[in-house]
Amino acid sequence: MRFRFIFFILFTVVISGKTQGQIKSSSVPGYESRIRKYIDTLRIIDNHEHLFPPEILKKSQFFDFISLFQQNGYDYLISAGMPPSYFNSLFNEVLSPEKKWKLIEPYWNKTFNTSFNRIILLGIKNLYGISVLNEYTVGPLSDKIKKAYKTDEWFDRILRDSCRIDYVIQDGYPIEGKDDYFRYAQRFDAWLLTKSRYRIDSLAMRQLEPVYTLEDYVKSLRLEFEKQVENGMTVVKIVVAYTRPLNFAKVTPEAARKVFRNLVNGDEGYSISFSEAKALQDYMLFRLLDLARKYKVPVAFHTGLQAGYSNIISISSPVAMTNIFL
Predict the structure, then answer these.
(1) Distance between CA atoms of residues 304 and 241, nearest Å
(2) What is the CATH topology of the domain spanning 188-325?
(3) Which of 226, 220, 224, 223 is nearest to 201 (CA)?
(4) Tens digit of pLDDT for each residue in 192-214?
(5) For residue 182, what is the DSSP state?
(6) Contact 92, 129 (CB under 8 A)
(7) Which part of the chain has CATH 3.20.20.140?
(8) pLDDT reading at 14 higher than 50
(9) How far apart are CA 304 and CA 78, in angstroms?
């Protein structure tokens, strides 16, 4: 018995030693290059974009280097202390690239090494051959951006050729002439964030359908949903986490109807708090999910990191959504 025990120990040690040796074996040199080459062969489905259509960008006051700061780069400048009031000067007023640079320079110097701003630097180097961003390069860079957008093939060159993107899910403006690889997300915030009579009346006027009861309100959501399905909606986008927590209760029609009646019986400017409106909002969220299930449309919830500033990240925790799946 003792012999068998000793043999078992020796056998285990030998096997263990061989296993450890296999784990610690050195990699064949050049693995970094092999990984990079493999990644460069992958095709991409880009599931989240807010791209400006070229025709809108060309008519804007930010058709220059500052367009690269939409939106995360701008948020970084704000986080470094740039006054939010600069937004109008940078994006809506007629200013030269050099004057815009003077506004952002102190804040750029504090954020140039952050993730999104390093992406800006990488982009201008690879796309426009400019390696630094300063008062001497913002003018030539702006000229190169305008020149690039003179051709309708610029989107294809960047998205399809350089980024190897097969499909883009756009949340925002439609991109004309790109229906072969652009797909669209649709939001239904008007029904999910209701807490005023004005919003209900606005929906009724927009759809030319009276909304007197909760059932009318649910019908108006259905009509809009079916309209967007016909228009080619690919995914339902829910971004209410910028405004309210993601804890949605399964509310009875009676509880939702009580809130709805309170709103429609109020004066034209009548509104209520989130806590008072929550039952109606939660009820409409589940009606939206019912429609998504019926028409087999995926639903994307915005959770976690929020764009912009002065947001409360705790309300965007996906943990609060557990009740939806129970």
Answers:
(1) 9
(2) TIM Barrel (3.20.20)
(3) 220
(4) 999 999 999 999 999 999 999 99
(5) E
(6) no
(7) 188-325
(8) no
(9) 20
